[in-house]
Specification:
It contains 6 helices and 4 strands. It is of the alpha+beta class and 170 residues long. A 4-stranded antiparallel beta sheet has the order 2-3-1-4. α3 packs antiparallel against α4. The chain starts with a strand and ends in a 7-residue tail after the last strand.
């Protein structure tokens, strides 16, 4: 199992230092992500991608089941009102629920790419102030080691906490 650690860093210089120290501590670069407000130069740092910056995953987790349930309900209505051909009730439910899954996922993901990640709401004031949000995904066994490495070596770094539930596709 993995945990997501958050650190607030005051500058890109410190973010580069922490990045290098974590690489030396054998944390893979693909497990590190950096988010900052527009205009801050994050070159040489692993920038967060669309899945980290937006509410895409959360929206899919909500849109797909709601769309599927809506499809099942519409299929049941079609059967009860006689819109579905007799003998094709199962196929009608299957088709409408599948269409609902697809449409729910599509609609929710199109909306979500313009919404900031709700998991990062508590860091909004820090990001607006020009600080850097440094995200690290580590195994549970290394949480204390990595937290100590960052916070103990760099007292100006703020421990932003641990997220116990990392999305399936972080």
């Amino acid at each position: 199992m993995k945990r997501r650690l958050y650190f607030i860093l005051p500058s890109t210089t410190l973010a580069r230092t922490v990045h290098n120290e974590l690489l030396l501590a054998r944390v893979e670069e693909r497990k590190m992500h950096v988010i900052a407000r527009e205009g801050i130069d994050l070159s040489d740092l692993p920038q967060a991608n669309l899945l980290h910056k937006t509410d895409f995953i959360h929206s899919l987790q909500m849109g797909i089941p709601i769309g599927g349930l809506t499809g099942i309900v519409l299929g049941a209505i079609a059967i009860n009102t006689g819109w579905a051909a007799p003998g094709f009730e199962s196929l009608t439910i299957f088709a409408t629920s599948t269409l609902g899954f697809v449409m729910g996922g599509l609609a929710s993901s199109m909306i979500a790419v313009s919404i900031p990640n709700t998991r990062h709401d508590k860091f909004a004031t820090d990001l607006a102030a020009g600080r850097i949000l440094f995200i690290v995904d580590v195994p549970v066994t290394r949480v204390d080691e990595i937290t100590e490495l960052v916070v103990q070596h760099h007292p100006e770094a703020i421990n932003g906490g641990i997220e116990p539930n990392i999305p399936v596709f972080p």
